[in-house]
């Protein structure tokens, strides 16, 4: 059983310095007891106290890191069952399965497909994160050759998929510096796989299709042997079983604090799927219900685009609206005579307005005001999009140095602000724009 906030408080420095972003050490202790903050947020805790409190501060689902450098992928580290309680911390990693019995040309095409999967949506970079190299040839030499080839071609994260320890070792010899995930330890090979995981210092997946009790027993055995970074696969290969197992694993880790199941998970939705529609449906279950890694057989647009959108929605902090940076944006190649529009920094508002300005083919300036991620009407009602703030923004962004005219186009829904803005900005004229973004192209073309 974990320590209470009062018990944790006894080990803290009691300086109330605020460096942890909490007003008092007691407040920090209470959050730590509820697993809502990390122990390392306190920079002044003693080494002895840190050692004692490490256990209670650890998240119920262990944090596991794959890959290196900018392509490091973090999975696990989750503390809640439902995103409205707090948020889900690490989006499901998406991987493409690549068999080692394919031709070199086919392998290169698969790798290029992963590279081409990158796209931007609502200001975020989305992509397939990993390549899962599958041991289909059953030949250590070929597996080593393919893993090296793929590692040379891409900096994506890697999963080495083989149940044969000798073949796994051949792959690790070529890619261990990239910290791949070893898939997988079973009841039959767990001792050899554990030895490899410790030797090469890589995370290890655990596989058992004999039920969660058998899976947890195997994970417990591996943890006792010194392998700490584990990823669980219950063997679920149907939608119903996947949903059931993933939910039970998450509940056991978070609600019951059952450590043998307190690890991130991996699923293979394409195995046994009749078509890509079934694969994406199963993968969607994985995104929504706790799969940390999702290995796909194909990443065609009909599979990957819905998953990008779903993953982005599920892993957005529901208590923190998506925002873009407050600044003056160039749309096209505007000059000193181009129109100047303003709106709020809610991401959806920004990208909708951006798209409509681009559709108009009229080069423009778009001034984005920090409204803490609120839409136009909501921000105005909350007094976060008002005349003084708009006037201050115009001055801070040195707008007058970039445009010769003094015309500011505001959203039609806040036309009530026009007089106030003109009072705050002497010499400026406020033009009331359309209420709906869809009318912006016509408005700008007529204005021009």
State the shape: globular
Strands in their spatial order, largest beta sheet: 10-9-8-7-6-3-12-11
Percent of residues in beta strands?
15-25%
In percent, how helical is the residue content?
A: 25-40%
Largest sheet: 8 strands, parallel
Structural class category? alpha/beta
Mean pLDDT: 93
Poorly predicted regions are none
CATH architecture of the largest domain: Alpha-Beta Barrel
Number of domains: 3
Estimated radius of gyration:
27 Å
In DSSP terms (H or I, runs of 4 or more residues), the helix count works out at: 16
CATH superfamily of the largest domain: Dihydropteroate synthase-like
The strand count comes to 17
Q: And the CATH topology of the largest domain? A: TIM Barrel
Gist of the model:
The protein has 448 residues and is α/β, with parallel strands linked by helices.
Outline the fold blueprint.
Elements: H1 5-9, H2 25-33, H3 47-57, E1 64-66, E2 73-75, E3 93-99, H4 104-116, E4 119-121, E5 124-126, E6 130-134, H5 140-153, E7 157-161, H6 165-175, E8 181-185, H7 190-200, E9 204-207, H8 212-224, E10 230-233, H9 239-254, E11 266-267, H10 276-288, E12 293-296, H11 301-314, E13 328-331, E14 340-344, H12 347-360, E15 364-369, H13 376-381, H14 387-396, E16 407-410, H15 418-424, E17 429-432, H16 440-447
Parallel strand pairs: 3-6, 3-12, 6-7, 7-8, 8-9, 9-10, 11-12, 14-15, 16-17
Antiparallel strand pairs: 1-2, 4-5, 13-15
Helix pairs in contact: 5-6, 6-7, 9-10, 10-11, 12-16, 14-15
């Amino acid at each position: 059983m974990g320590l209470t906030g009062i018990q944790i408080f006894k080990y803290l420095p009691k300086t109330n310095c605020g460096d942890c972003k909490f007003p008092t050490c007691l407040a920090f202790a209470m959050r730590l007891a509820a697993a809502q903050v990390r122990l390392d947020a306190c920079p002044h805790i003693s080494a002895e106290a840190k050692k004692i409190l490490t256990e209670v501060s650890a998240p119920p689902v262990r944090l596991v890191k794959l890959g290196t450098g900018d392509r490091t992928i973090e999975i696990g580290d989750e503390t809640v069952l439902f995103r409205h309680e707090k948020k889900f911390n690490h989006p499901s990693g998406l991987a493409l399965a690549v068999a080692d019995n394919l031709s070199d040309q086919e392998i290169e095409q698969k790798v290029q497909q992963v590279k081409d999967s990158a796209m931007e949506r609502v200001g975020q970079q989305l992509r397939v994160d990993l390549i899962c190299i599958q041991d289909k040839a059953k030949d250590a030499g070929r597996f080593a050759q393919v893993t090296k080839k793929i590692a040379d071609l891409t900096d994506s994260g890697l999963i080495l998929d083989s149940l044969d320890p000798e073949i796994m070792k051949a792959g690790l010899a070529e890619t261990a510096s990239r910290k791949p995930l070893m898939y997988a330890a079973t009841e039959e090979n767990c001792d050899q796989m554990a030895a490899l995981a410790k030797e090469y210092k890589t995370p290890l997946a655990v596989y058992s299709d004999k039920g969660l009790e058998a899976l947890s027993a195997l994970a417990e055995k591996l943890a006792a042997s010194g392998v700490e970074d584990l990823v669980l696969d219950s063997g679920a290969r149907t939608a119903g079983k996947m949903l059931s197992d993933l939910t039970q694993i998450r509940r056991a880790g978070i609600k019951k604090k059952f450590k043998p199941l307190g690890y991130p998970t991996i699923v293979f939705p394409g195995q046994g799927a009749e078509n890509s529609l079934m694969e994406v449906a199963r993968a969607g279950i994985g995104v929504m219900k706790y799969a940390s890694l999702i290995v796909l057989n194909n990443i065609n647009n009909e599979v990957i685009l819905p998953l990008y959108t779903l993953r982005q929605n599920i892993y957005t902090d529901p208590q923190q609206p998506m925002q873009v940076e407050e600044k003056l944006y160039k749309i096209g190649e505007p000059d000193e005579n181009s129109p100047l529009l303003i709106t709020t920094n809610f991401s959806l508002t920004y990208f909708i307005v951006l798209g409509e300005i681009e559709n108009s083919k009229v080069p423009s300036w778009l001034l984005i005001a920090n409204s803490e991620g609120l839409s136009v009407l909501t921000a105005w009602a909350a007094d976060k999009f008002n005349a003084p703030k708009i006037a201050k923004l115009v001055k801070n962004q040195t707008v007058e140095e970039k445009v010769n005219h003094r015309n500011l186009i505001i959203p039609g829904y806040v036309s009530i602000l026009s007089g106030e803005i003109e009072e705050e900005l002497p010499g400026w004229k406020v033009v009331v724009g359309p209420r709906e973004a869809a009318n912006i192209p016509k408005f700008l073309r007529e204005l021009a």
